[in-house]
Write a structure and sequence with these properties.
It is built from eleven helices and 13 strands. It is an alpha+beta fold and about 325 residues long. Strands 1, 2, 3, 4, 5, 6, 7, 8, 9, 10, 11, 12 and 13 form a 13-stranded mixed sheet that branches. Strand 11, helix 9 and strand 12 form a beta-alpha-beta unit. Helix 2 packs antiparallel against helix 8 and helix 7 packs antiparallel against helix 8. It is globular.
Length: about 325
């Protein structure tokens, strides 16, 4: 029997340690990140936790709000460009397949039963971490499941082998950096503001919606455990050119926000990404998640780092009428 409940004070105190122990836990699952996401999305976060006796089975943060007179639920909520959330399992990989699948299924069913008891959402949307590979329990509870894709770079191979795997132009751009007066540095809140403002201006120029604000990202930076949010800036000849805000868990660094097109006459983004990768390798990080591989316009740039293609999933449960209502919510600022 798996018992699912809303996390109490004791559960929340231990929440981040559970995230670190889960194979599917990522930087966006941390308790502090959930609080900031809820605040900036205008939602209530329901931190679901499952137990088998005294043993934690899984975590499942869900964000809920009312729109058009109905309750809708998301994990993660839209517009803040959180790439993955959904369930994070614990203490299951040690079990044999039959028992592991039974426990996983009971946890997922228990989460949705608790969610529908608490808020009765008419629409639920999920986007799961790529390491959450078995979507069958979600599908069996009435969800439509579709695949999506991201690129990941293996950082365990070492600098020399990694650079050799890059495309010829990427290798050339990195090596030509030896002839350029540039720096890639980790900064703080001011770096975040410059990076996000540059992204806002770039999207405005393209007349494309961009839901991220400097306030949201600085709140994440302040709230997350130390070193989980790292804003990197690249300067050429002493002048700021661009940057990247990364998020990080124990083994993965996420290329989250930044990398805007710039006016500098150097391949600054190649040098920036290389600097982020080498810095992460020095800390023992194993994977660089490039956060997305479904935009053909951007894939050409990301693919030159010789990444692996990883699948993650979207899941949706709703009536046709509520799907329209959810789309209306996603368009709200």
């Amino acid at each position: 029997m798996v018992e699912v409940s809303i996390a109490d004070e004791d559960d929340i105190e231990k929440w981040n340690s559970y995230v670190d122990r889960s194979p599917q836990g990522n930087a966006f699952h941390y308790d502090e990140a959930l609080a900031v996401i809820a605040d900036h999305s205008g939602t209530d976060c329901h931190r679901l936790i499952g137990y088998k006796g005294q043993e934690v089975v899984g975590l499942f943060p869900v964000f809920e709000r009312g729109t058009l007179g109905q309750s809708v639920a998301f994990s993660p909520p839209p517009n803040l460009l959180i790439p993955y959330l959904g369930p994070a399992l614990l203490n299951i990989e040690k079990l044999k397949r039959r028992k592991a699948e039974r426990r996983h299924g009971r946890f997922v069913r228990g989460c949705f039963e608790r969610l529908f008891e608490e808020v009765s959402p008419r629409y639920v949307s999920l986007r799961t971490d790529g390491r959450y590979a078995d979507l069958r329990p979600i599908k069996w509870t009435g969800f439509d499941v579709t695949p999506d894709y991201t690129y990941t770079v293996d950082l365990t191979v070492g600098e020399e082998e990694l650079l050799a795997s890059f495309s010829s132009d990427a290798r050339s751009n990195v090596r030509s950096g030896e002839e350029i007066e540039y720096t890639v540095e980790e900064g703080g809140e001011e770096a975040i503001r410059r990076i996000v403002t540059q992204m806002i201006e770039r999207h405005e120029a393209q007349e494309v919606f961009y839901g991220i604000t400097p306030e949201f990202v600085t709140d994440l930076y302040r709230s997350l455990p130390e070193d989980r949010c790292r804003p990197y800036s690249i300067s050429v000849d002493g002048a700021f050119v661009g940057g990247m805000v990364t998020l990080e868990d124990d083994d993965t660094i996420y290329r989250w926000q930044g990398g805007a097109k710039h006016d500098a006459d150097v391949s600054a983004n190649d040098l920036l990404d290389w600097g982020i990768m080498t810095d992460a390798m020095d800390r023992g990080i194993e994977t660089y998640d490039l956060v997305g591989a479904s935009n053909p316009r951007l894939n050409g740039y990301k693919a030159k780092f010789s990444p692996d293609l990883r699948t993650f999933h979207n899941a949706e449960r709703a009536s046709p009428a509520m799907k329209l209502a959810a789309e209306a919510y996603k368009r709200l600022r």
